Amino acid sequence: MEYRGAVLDVDGTVVRGDEPIPGAPEGVRRIRSAGVEPLFVSNNPSKAPPAYVRRLSRAGYDVDVDHVVTAGTVSTTYLERHHPDDSIYLVGETGLARQLREVGLSLSPDPSVADVVVVSLDREFDYEELSAVQWALEDDDVRFYGTDPDIVIPAAERNIPGSGALINAVVDVTGRQPDLVFGKPNEPTRRAIFERFDHDPGDCFVVGDRLDTDIALGVEAGMTTVLVRTGVTDDKTLANAEIQPDYVLDSLAEIDRLLNGDP
To answer: Looking at the whole model, is its pTM more than 0.85?
Structure first.
């Protein structure tokens, strides 16, 4: 079939750290040469689209801000729409805090006045902050959101804990599940993708390294799904998984298999 749109994961699919995954830049060029529009979609909440453009450009990718969606942008859009006047207690890094403040959202360092708690990637997360979130969420009226469900993320040298690990710690101490998690594969990100794409999901494919986010996103949206072995999913995990991709590639360098309709 002829595809019109490609949803491309970032970490573990096109880059690891700041370095391109071998063959992936050429794979993206072949996607464009086939007349398919790429959209880079990341569950990393801490970097805004301009930072992703710079990072991907240094790695050899041609991309503009209109073709980048992150868990940070999805979270910011949701909070701006649904909690414009609320006080937000954020567990997150300065990049996400900046995105929220830039649209006029109010962040408070005092959990006792929070209307909303947002839990995200934070490499300075500690016992004191976990306690503060626990106390804030004792009030059932306080909304609890997570930016993305990634338990681990592929970094330059090895995998490191992601937002999902912190969200799970909060779940364990509070007994509360998040009211909503914004990132892939969840509905806020699916909506954000097709607000950017003027394509039917059936005319699109998604490429990623994670079954529970990238491949689940494609399954739930009705896209063709492509798993690459360059990130967090190994063969044992794939063999035992309930969610199965339509294609499994060693890397994005093999994308011609999909584009040419090869099994």
So the answer is: yes
